[in-house]
Amino acid sequence: MKILWDRFAQPDWDAAHGRTSGALQQDWAYGATMRLLGVPVLRALIEQDGSPVGLAQFIVRSFGPLGSLSLCSRGPIWLQDVSAADKASASRALRQSLPRSGLKFVLITPEETGQSGEHGLRAWRRVMSGYATVLIDLQPQAETLRAALDGKWRNRLVAAEASELQVHRIGTNPGQYRWLLDQEEAQRQTKGLAGLPLGFYEPYIGSRQQPAQCVLSLRADVGRERVAAMMFLIHGQAATYQVGWSNDQGRELNAHNLLLWRAMLELQSRGVRRLDLGGVNTVRSAGLARFKIGTGGQVLQLAGTYLA
pLDDT digits over 87-99, tens only? Predict the structure, then answer.
């Protein structure tokens, strides 16, 4: 295995990331935005016998001359079938060649599920349990997607469709969606929620010549009043749910069921193949977990985070 650091052009990275429906954390624009926020980012091309087999994007926390902690979240992206032994070799090479001085601590949270060792990290120390999310395959026809919805979820959708709710697309200029981020900030303060820095969204959305290529935001209104909204970030042929807000009337009218369903159809029409609904926690946020699972998506339990 050979590792080439920061030697991959953005168009090539974007094309490979798109083909594999890679996670948001491995998107080039994600790394570029983190750099704008002052976070060091490293990108690696993994070669085997002269052919590219994987990509890995790390965000870095530096401790000055003492060393650094580098995290590859939901990666590497594998461009072809790679054996567990070869993945183990690649992980060793990534750590050994990492272009940082001092002590180097490396964390990898692979996209693979389970702990059977198919991710090639069995020799590393598992320091965090696996992240859980819900993935929706958007490739089937709309009728198939709707039939996969849980019965109660679908009934709430039908009720929302028959209500006075009106769905509108939110524009991509910061002034058009900043109110939603203000609502998100208030939710984080009152509910103790966590997420990407709120300063992340504007540079990420503005990173493309056509911002609509990397974001979809929908709003539900009753008359002239906003009652709910959702924001999704689009990265290649995948999208990730990021922000959701609803007031009491929106919750009463099941606005989020309607917004998510409309988003699924809109993303599908844009060629998005996979929708990641984000983390599910059946203990801390049982209601939200039930909402996500009710879409009929696959519950994905990742293998965990490994340290070397």
Answer: 999 999 999 999 9
pTM, two decimal places: 0.94
Same domain (yes/no): 204, 271: yes
Q: Which domain holds residue 61?
A: 2-123
HEC letters along the chain = CEEEECCCCHHHHHHHHHHCCCCHHHCHHHHHHHHHCCCCEEEEEEEECCEEEEEEEEEEEECHHHEEEEEEECCCEECCCCCHHHHHHHHHHHHHHCCCCCEEEEEEECCCECCCCCCCCCCCEEEECCCEEEEEECCCCHHHHHHCCCHHHHHHHHHHHCCCCEEEECCCCHHHHHHHHHHHHHHHHHHCCCCCCHHHHHHHHCCCCCHHHCEEEEEEEECCEEEEEEEEEEECCEEEEEEEEECHHHHHCCHHHHHHHHHHHHHHHCCCCEEEEEECCCCCCHHHHHHHHCCCCEEEEECCEEEC
139 with 93, same domain: the answer is no
189 found inside a domain: yes
pLDDT digits (tens, 9 = 90+) for 133-162: 999 999 999 999 999 999 999 999 999 999
Same domain, 229 and 268: yes
